Amino acid sequence: MSDSDDDVPTLSAHTLAALQEFYHETRTRPDQDRMESDPFAVGAVEEDWRMSQFWYSDETAALLAEEVVREAGEGGRIACVSAPSVYQKLKQGVVDGSDRVSAFVLEYDRRFATYADDFIFYDYNEPLSLPPSVAPQSFDIVLADPPYLSEECLSKVAKTIKYLSKGKVLLCTGAIMENVAKELLDVKMCSFLPKHNRNLSNEFRCFINYPSSLLWS
């Protein structure tokens, strides 16, 4: 063993444990602080790129929330599939009529379980693996944002959408998915351009299967 090896400092097990605890706290404290200040603020739960999470801008989340409230109607039910920022905007109480609808968030990320009964665990790889309480065609509108830009992912999410929706679909995904989306869900691309808090490399669009001002806005 060389002299340099002898001089390398080592950390005790206690010190290592303390460092790991500090690292964990610095990773989790921002989410906890934001959740405590406003649990429904867009970004209250930090994006995790490992799960392909990219939150909408506050303006886009508000506009999409207004759209689904309008289309669901009074007493309507809204499913936000992999679109937690729209769900959060609906629950903030800043969108007119949001207090007269029911909204649920279907998410793989269990951090959103903090929303209690509004949270439904969802894995797009098992598109129909939903709780018995989630009845078929029980939502007046389904807003979905598949986590990945692939035909395989969209095909599976489309199965979930068809199971949940009474008819109306608002799909948010990359423009490159237009033909696949049309084939699977008979949706049209809107003129409206959704924006995210972070700039995405792929052009992002909304698609719907009902008449709306989003088509030409």
Outline: globular
Rg from alpha-carbon coordinates? 21 Å
Count of distinct strands: 7
How would a crystallographer describe the biggest sheet? 7 strands, mixed
- Sequence of strands across the biggest β-sheet: 3-2-1-4-5-7-6
Strand percentage: 15-25%
Q: Whole-Å distance between the termini?
A: 72 Å
> Can you write the helix and strand succession as a string?
HHHEHEEEHEHEE
Query: What class do helices, strands and sheet pairing give?
Result: alpha/beta
Protein model, in words:
Protein-lysine methyltransferase that selectively catalyzes the trimethylation of EEF1A at 'Lys-79'. One of its GO terms (biological process) is methylation. It catalyses: L-lysyl-[protein] + 3 S-adenosyl-L-methionine = N(6),N(6),N(6)-trimethyl-L-lysyl-[protein] + 3 S-adenosyl-L-homocysteine + 3 H(+). The longest helix is centred in the N-terminal third of the chain and has 25 residues, at 13-37. The protein is of the alpha/beta class and 217 residues long. 34% of the residues are buried. Helix 5 (151-164) runs parallel beside helix 6. Helix content is 35%, strand content 17%. It has helices at residues 3-7, 13-37, 58-72, 84-91, 151-164, 178-185, and strands spanning 77-81, 102-107, 119-121, 139-144, 165-174, 188-189, 204-208. It has a seven-stranded mixed beta sheet with strand order 3-2-1-4-5-7-6, sandwiched between helices. Strand 4 (139-144), helix 5 and strand 5 (165-174) form a beta-alpha-beta unit. The protein contains six helices and seven strands.
